[in-house]
Amino acid sequence: MITIAPATLVPLNVLVNEHRMYLPLVGAAVLVARIWPSLRRGYLMGAAVLLAALTALTVERNRAWHDELSLWRDSAEKSPYMSRSHVHFGNALRDRGRSEEAEMSYERALQLEPAHRSAQVNVANLYYERGWRAAADSSLARRFFLTAAAAFERAITAHPLFGEAYYNLGHLHVGQENPTAAVAPLERALTLHIDSQSSWSRGDALWDLGNAYAGSNRLPEAVHAYRRARALNAGGSPRYVRNLGEVLFAMGERALAVGDSSAARRHWEEAEICYRELIALGSDEQRAVYRLGQMEKRLQ
Questions:
Q1: What is the pLDDT of residue 198?
Q2: Among 40, 114, 198, 205, whose CB has the most other CB atoms within 10 angstroms?
Q3: Distance CA 61, CA 76 (A)
Q4: Per-residue pLDDT for 197 more than 90?
Q5: CA Rg, the chain, in Å?
Q6: Span 79-103, mean pLDDT?
Q7: Are 90 and 109 in contact (CB under 8 A)?
Q8: Do residues 84 and 110 lie in contact, with contact meaning Cβ atoms separated by under 8 Å?
Q9: What span, in angstroms and rounded, lies between the C-alpha atoms of 171 and 201?
Q10: Which domains does the chain carry?
């Protein structure tokens, strides 16, 4: 009774968690062991029946705990008015490629809690994924992308500090070659430290932001974003290095076109480092060698 008191007296946001009974059951087991030797034969038979019933219940619960899908299906069925159960069930369905069923589960969660941020963003992600799968039908893909963008914006309106929604919206715009629209949400996502525990995720956000800057012809800002992404993932993804090299090469070309050869040289010296790193990584070697040759001719 003492060990179960905190979970009994303190309000919690999940109605039932089986692990709350683990520690209290230690006390129950000690109590049973204490009184077992003094039980009469009739009580022993009753205890044996109870033990058999509890064993059957354990076997039944093990079926529910077979995998994530079966666990959250069981939770959603037994807790039909808990939005969290439907969201997690939707996640398990989505992970198995059952997107239509996942959407139904997310929509059920939103019926129960219209502002549930994970449900809002997950629905938007489903439409985004459908847009890419429908790429062969540009009209249908565009409708999916517009629906996804509207859903991300609703999530942002409801949860203005939810960095993931900003990042996903910006990523969508980058993928749809709308870099100008991508800049603001990506900047906001990084301000909110999207996935601050993961340098790789921050690197992806910075890479997307660099692409948005580059597509918006804001090359110095693009270089700064790519440098930050590269610094977070030292020796990591070649795409950070490749894009940084390409933007530096373009900046060198622009500087040379206006007669500023010293600025062009500075940009190309850093670009050369990027292209040689790509060659060492075995990535885009042909393009890297070609760029190195171009810069060598320009500087002669």
A1: 55
A2: 205
A3: 15
A4: no
A5: 29
A6: 93
A7: yes
A8: no
A9: 12
A10: 1-65 (no CATH), 68-142 (1.25.40.10), 235-300 (no CATH)
